[in-house]
Design brief:
Length: 294
Amino acid sequence: MAEKKHKLHKNGGYRPDDVTGLQKLMCHLWPNRTDCEVCLFDTFDCTEVVRYLEEKNASHPDYKTTIFHATIVAVARMVLERPLMNRFVQGRRIYQREDVSLSFTAKRRFADGAEESLMTISPRPDDTLDTISKHLYGDIHQMRKSDHGTDGIDGVINSLMSLPLPLQMLIVKVVRLLDFWGLTPKALKDGDPHYTSVLLSNLGSIKCPAVYHHLTNYGTQSIMITIGTLRKEQVMMPDGTMQVRVLIDVTATLDERIGDGFYFARSLKLIKHIFAHPELLDLPMSEPSGFDYK
């Protein structure tokens, strides 16, 4: 039976019917997202996906599909197939987001003090690894060529934070109140990673490990994922043999009010499955992966 949709929330979600009384109570007992963080640390075997990307990149040397691109696509597929991962809490109520969106930050230059720009992507039903990789490559390349910051939320924040301190404090207080009731102006939400399904951070690009990253009490984002650097390590395989495998550490911070640990762990297993079968990355987003959770 199709889930009945309530009135659409201002931030693109609706109140689902399957929220339990315990979840509703948790929203009152722990109203702040940072009070309800669950952090999962895991290591993914990337051997197959790295091999797959090497073959793919050999066929189009004009741009490079990276492990981060593959991670973005795998996470997007996971959120599409695991609907509880696309929920958020706002105003002490749980909402089901209608669309999937992912965000990340990109440095304009790899140097101390270099400006960061916020980037957002909303996969379409026909998107694949190739289409998303081309899109990301073009956006990041164009951003780094530009002498100016990106439009949208970056410009709005810079303008507001140039005002005197008392005005800054007043504006932030009003914005937080609007955020609680889901009334944040579109100009402040567009391009803001706090209003997306997942925020990812590619710490491997700066040779940093996959650290824990907190959630925030602002916006609607319920999942934060960091990935570290690729490394080679000897691993004991299921048949008892030792093999050199390519591994990457992943840390995910989630709002426990939207689901439970069992659901979260299964969702991470889906990403692992996609990495072990990288051909799934080139399926259209609308086509299920067929993963068996047994």
